Amino acid sequence: MTMTGGGFIRLPGGSVVVALSLPRPPHGARSGPYDCGCRVRVLVHAGNRQRALTRLRNHGLRAVYLRGNSEPPTPDEVTAVLHHPDGLVWRETPDDDTESWHPIRALLRAPVVPAAPVRAAG
Predict the structure, then answer these.
(1) 20: how many CB neighbours lie within 10 A of its CB?
(2) Who has the most CB within 10 Å: 2, 18, 35, 92?
(3) Percentage of the residues of the chain whose pLDDT score is greater than 90
C-alpha cells in the first residue's frame, strides 16, 4: 500500500481532483525502487475518486490508495491539473511554487540502463 498524504476536492461540475504524495519511482541507472526517499505530489482530474485512482494504476502505480482527506489539493494545484491536457501531473517539490508541474509520462519513463557491449560472433 502506497499512501501517506492525500485528499480530493469535488468541483462544481461533479468531477474531482485527487492529490497524492507518493514515493518517487526509480529514476536512474542504478536506483532501486524508492531508494532515494524522495516524494512527489501527483494530481489527477477524473470523474470520481475511483476513476482517478484507476488512472494512476493504469500508469503503473499499482498500490495507490486514498485514505481520508488529510491533504486536499490547493486552489493552485486544482488550476494546474485542470489546465493540463492530460489532467495528470506531478512535481517533486510540492511546496516550491517555482517548480513546474510535469506530465505523468516524465515521472514514469523507464530508467536509463546502460546497454551491454555487443560481441562479434566468431
Answers:
(1) 27
(2) 18
(3) 35
